[in-house]
Amino acid sequence: MARLHRWTARVLLGGALLALVTAPLPATAVPVAPGAPDAVADGQSSLVMVLDSSGSMAEDDGSGSTRIASARKAVGTVVDSLPDGYPTGLRVYGADKPKGCDDTRLARPVEALDRAALKQAVADVEPKGDTPIGLSLRKAAGDLPGRPDGSLGRRTILLISDGEDNCGTPQPCEVAEQLGAKGVDLRIDTIGFQVRGKARDQLECIADAGHGSYYDAPDAEALARQLQRASQLSADGYRFKGERITGGSRASDAPAITPGQYVDTIGPGETRWYAAELDAASTADLAVTAVPQPGVKVAYGDGIELKLTSTNEYRSTCGSADARFGQDEGAMTLTTAVSRIPSSDGDAFCDEPGRYLLSLHRSSESGSDQARWPVELRYGTEQPLKKGLVPAHSATEYGKAGKDAVPPTGTAKDVTGGTGFNDAEQLERGVWRDRLLPAQTRYYKVHVGWGQQLRYSADFANEPTLEDSSGASSFADTAVYAPARQPVATGGEFTAQRSYYGEPLSVELGTVPVSWTNRWESVGAAVPVRAAGDYYIAVSLGPEASKIAKNATIGVVLRVDVVGDELAGPQHKAPVLHRSGEEKGKVATRADNAGASGAGWTGPAIAAAAGGALIVLIAVLVLVRRRRGPSDPMTRGGA
Questions:
Q1: Is 528 exposed, middle or buried (0-12, 13-18, 19+ CB in 10 A)?
Q2: Where residue 150 falls among pLDDT bands split at 50, 70, 90?
Q3: What's the pLDDT score for residue 313?
Q4: Measured between alpha carbons, how far is residue 340 from residues 310, 319, 391 in Å?
Q5: Which residue, among 541, 411, 539, has the nearest Cα to 463 in the 3D structure?
Q6: Per-residue confidence at 124, pLDDT binned at 50, 70, 90?
Q7: What is the phi/psi pair of residue 576, to 5°?
Q8: Residues sharing a CB contact under 8 Å with residue 143, sequence separation 6 or more, in sequence order
Q9: Which contiguous run of DSSP H or E holds residue 119?
Q10: 408-444 pLDDT, tens per residue?
Q11: N or C: where does the chain have the smaller number of CB atoms within 10 Å of the terminal CB?
Q12: Torsion sign over Cα 150, 151, 152, 154
């Protein structure tokens, strides 16, 4: 099977230091750290576990315990690890009578998590009968609550079985395919507990048809680990924000968008169109984040492409970009962006005011997962500088923040990264510790002011590995996004992706200094770094890490630095921005662009009081992304 391009060297980082800063969390639990994202804040995501309680679950699992006893223990561990209030239910089959293909019931409804009640429901199960998987899946889909019109969430059916369906009607794979065709939000994951042959084939088929993943559990320890991973991915799905919109199927049908945030969906091979009215002076930024079900089948070249074109007589292409998986282990979140940046002399074709068209296309091979993807679109504008204000020169060199920079050291503080841009965890300079699931991306944000640079590393320490993991490999990678969500290219200085084997490694990135004039450079590492504000860090772990790591989650240490003094604005010879003692210790909205520079952003606003004045920062969108070429195989559009 083809793999992503990887560095061949395994990087060792000094084991003693890594061991110190990555003091282990419990190996068999996925803790919910203080300040963790509220998994039910959107009221849209939910989980129902479907537990095999057929007669075979009473058999010895090889550890001196029965399969059902191991399943009870595993479910209890999962229940303890899920976030408070996360809607979770339990359906069982084969639990009520010795024989019968209608033997399936909802043991606990899908409602705000009641840990004690769920544990008791599992404890009450005694294996007895048949294995009506198809009927149970159909019933489980009805157990999951509906979502508000226009909302996007993740509804998950998690099937745990030690064998194949022995009822025949309805066929489980057919049911999964029918359910998977009904919407973008339903996912069916399967866990095979000590299965092989036809039973495993059927569970893999159900997962493929249901836009989910199959997890193999050859023993009780693996069952607990895989159950935690699947349930936690359900709870930690991307938190969407925005107005629901339906892009046109043709350019002539493109709906009008104004600065703000939107959500839509897109199918394989489909193109969506949107229209925006642009003036002659402002910069327009448009970013799209596509969120397939994590870990589902994809091909190396699958992804999304953006193009921004004018509608004047020249039909000029004003920006184009793409984001592709660049690997075939499984789907991850993808983000890319385009911008209309007025030229310095104002006489380019794309400087003209008028109607512009944004097209979003999805590429997908026939063997890839064919589910529709939710997408989040952000559109913002940046006002020009005040008349007469002379901006500082562009800054395209990394200097002190380059590849040889020494990252911060010290005691790591526990943190839980966000699921996406909307709930990214705010970080300051320092050392931070988090844990990732295979197929997961965590998001963080760091304020970077005018004249400053972001520099960080994401360090993975030694992890206990599975005995049969020899030869298995995955990847760890990281990406930086500007305040308007434009991907910042690596510039050749950094190693942003490495092969992962469970051994110590580090991925790292940084930015050049923030300068307003960077927008007119041709270097992908500089062009997006043109606005002060929150820069986003995304850290990802490949899906195949589930075949390597013995623990449910994998530890990562973030060493974050912001290099240089923050300047008062983008102007030439801007003074250093001095803050009070209280402000120095805070990570908050910084300078008022409009006041300091005459340049301002429009879009979703965040306001904070400082020195009696209202400081407003608007989060915006995107800039032209450097397209990857054969000489830069490791640059990824996705996070």
A1: buried
A2: low
A3: 82
A4: 10, 7, 19
A5: 541
A6: very high
A7: -65, 135
A8: 48, 89, 91, 106, 109, 110
A9: helix 115-123
A10: 999 999 999 999 999 999 999 999 999 999 999 999 9
A11: N
A12: negative
